[in-house]
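Recap from last week: sequence in, structure out.
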Amino acid sequence: MTRLQARAFTAGVFTPDHAETPAGPQPWKYQLEVSAIYPGGGGAAQNSTLTLWFTERLGGTVMYAGTADFGGVVFEVTQPMLDAIFALTYSEKQDPGPLPGDRPGQTPAGPQAGTVPAKDAAPPAETPKTEPPPKP
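Predicted structure tokens:
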């Protein structure tokens, strides 16, 4: 993402502890601090920092963000922003992790526990046995 955009602005003002939403007050759950350095004339750089607060995802496409900057605003985030934040926050509480016994980088050789092969599935093929080449 290269631009910060709002899907829609809420009628409320920014408060440091929650966002006013159609579903009622929602506490801020995540904080993102964005810093940018802009080259300035005469070699002096200008720094700018923006702090954004986010609610939990409140529905399939709904998440609110707010900032005290810009006079204090609260807005509904765009889908690309929601997807980016969700990718960072979803795994911490929802990702079940690897299956028991799995090793990283290894592909399971056969059916997974609890799976049932299709009725008309062919039996697994045998692995051909190979012998080392004869020595010269």
